[in-house]
Each structure stands twice: as C-alpha cells, then as structure tokens.
Amino acid sequence: MRIISGKYKGRRISPPKGLPVRPTTDMSKEALFNVLNNYFNFSDLKILDLFAGTGNISFEFASRGSDNITAVDADFGCIKFIKQIAQEFDFNIASIKSDVFKFLEKNNTSYDIIFADPPYGLDQATFEKIVTTVFEKELLQEDGMMVIEHSKYTKMEHLINFSFQKSYGGSFFSFFELNSDGGEEVGDDFESDEG
Q1: Alpha-carbon distance 23 to 83, whole Å?
Q2: What share of the chain is helix, strand, coil (3-state, %, to 5)?
Q3: Which segments carry the region annotation Disordered (predicted)?
Q4: Going edge to edge, which strands form the sheet with 93-97?
Q5: Is residue 141 in some structural domain?
Q6: Residue 14 lies in a domain
Q7: Could you tell me if 61 and 52 are in contact, meaning their C-beta atoms sit under 8 angstroms apart?
Q8: Among candidates 128, 110, 108, 109, which has minimal Cα distance to 118?
C-alpha cells in the first residue's frame, strides 16, 4: 500500500504477511480522501480509525497533517505494526488494542471524523450497531462525519443521520453527518464510480 498525498506522498508501506486484514485499496482510498478534502482541513482534526487493520487510513490522515489520531483494532499484530510505522514516520497516532465495541462503550471523547472498516463478513446488525453506538454516545462532533466502508450486501441508507453513499469498485462508503436530514433524500445522493 502507498500514501496517496501529503508529506509522505508516494511512500510505500509494506505490512507483514499474515495480518487478518483487507486493506482499503489505493483507488478507493484516494477517492475517499477526495470527498473528505471538500469538507475538512485535515490539520485541525481529531480522527478515530476503527478496525484500523494495517493503519492504512490513519497513515493517510497523518501524512495530510492530522496529528490527533486514534487507531483501534483487536489484533495485536496490527497494533504492533501501526506503532512501528507511527514511530518511523513520526506520526501522532495512539494505537489501542481493543474490541471496537468495548472501546466505543467506554469512550467519552468526540471526534471530527470517525472511519470504520469492519470485516465485510460481519452481519448487518453488527454494522448497524457501529452507527447507533456512535450517535447514542455522541462520539461525533456536530460538524463531523462518520464513514463506514462495506460491501454491496450491507445496507446503511436507512440508518440515523445517513447522508450519502459512494462506491468504488467493490467497496462502498456510507457517510453520516449530524446535520443531515436523517436520510430523507436517500437515492438522490448515491453515486457510483464503478468501472
């Protein structure tokens, strides 16, 4: 995987083999950050990266100037790798080994951007629980945005504060905002860049 933009643009990062991950593709990551770039100045943000895996998304935020990033994953190998790269690149990433739902239940900090990339194989109810927990615990700041990466088989449009959705190849990104209309205009905002 490589860093798309920012201070370390073009740098390749090679995670060790055997990590239980499915990293966001470079194409999808670039498209995602093109969207976020229209909403945020990355240097001022507090970021939460859930199911962080290799740290792919955290590293991209850090390269673009974010210096308050929390990466959460249950796998020791993933957290060890994120710590290693953060130290090597001097990124300010707090990497936490924890079950994501246990972390959310205990956490009282709010964030500008919450990104979650759960395993695609998790069931619909588990994906929905991520969204409901974040909003019930008010973990997203008022002008913030939550992004969930998922497959076409997971449906997010009906959930609270759903704003819009984009697809790139086989990956879908659902965006949630507190100031959205709760998803009344679902369908009008769907965009696909597939193919």
Answers
A1: 17
A2: 30, 25, 45
A3: 1-20
A4: 93-97, 69-73, 47-50, 111-116, 140-150, 171-176, 162-168, 191-192
A5: yes
A6: no
A7: no
A8: 128
| Residue (of 150, 153, 159) closest to 129 by Cα position | 159
Spatial separation of the C-alpha atoms in residues 74 and 80, rounded to whole Å: 11
Distances (CA, A) of 51 to 14, 55, 70, 179, 181: 18, 9, 11, 25, 27
The DSSP symbol for 12 reads: B
Give the amino acid at 3.
Answer: I
Residue 66's domain comprises 43-192
Determine which helix (DSSP H) or strand (DSSP E) holds 174, and give its type and residue range.
Answer: strand 171-176
Tens digits of residue pLDDT in 104-132: 999 999 999 999 999 988 999 999 999 99
Q: Judge whether 27 lies within some domain.
A: no
pLDDT tens, 95-110? 999 999 999 999 999 9
10 burial class (0-12, 13-18, 19+ CB within 10 angstroms)? exposed
Query: What's 165's domain CATH number?
Result: 3.40.50.150
pLDDT at 180 over 70: no
Rounded-to-integer distance, Cα 100 and Cα 132, Å: 13
Q: How many whole angstroms separate alpha carbon 32 and alpha carbon 23?
A: 14
Note whether residue 3 is domain-resident. Answer: no
The whole-angstrom separation of Cα 172 and Cα 6 is: 24
